[in-house]
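Data's thin. Show one?
=====
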Amino acid sequence: MLSIQHLCAARSRGTSLIEVLVTLVILAFGLLGVAGLQTKIGLAEMESYQRAQALLALSQMTERMSANTAQAIAYVTAGSVGTGDAQPADCSGIAAGPNHDLCEWSNALKGASEQKSGASVGGMVGAVGCITQLQAANPALGVCTAGVYQVSVAWQGMVPTAAPAPALACGTGLYGANALRRVIAVTVSVGTTSCY
């Protein structure tokens, strides 16, 4: 009888080791899944942060244009403002008005509000802003059309998605694949005061 019990004990020890190895393999796959999920959460958080910063920059410029409707045409940019432009880091030497507003908007797009080791880190990746005129104001009696402007902010996303609409041209060609380009835009209407 002793020999039968000895054989059963030896078999159960081997089975336990296999169960432990299978458990470790399952646990390893589970941990890899959690690590992948954590990476995706980090990317989604960065995308969300950049979108929030873009909305702030967009509202900042639309409010400045709305406050200075008499000079709205002076806000129209030939190219883009922000990353890669020639605007100075200190806008205090520029007189108040559209040029000063564009300088401050450029610095906001570059992330100058937050500094780390002397580098701007508070903005979006490669952010640029564009202001285009969609319709010229015409104060002539009988016509009375308002000036319509499009304010856009573009930046580089973290992962490819659907490409922005062709009408949103701000930042085109700056980020490699068009699926990495993110753009938000709003139109600003500037009414004419001489029409009644």
In short: The radius of gyration is 29 Å. The chain has one domain: 2-80+124-190. The helical segments are 2-67, 98-109. The chain has a mean pLDDT of 85.
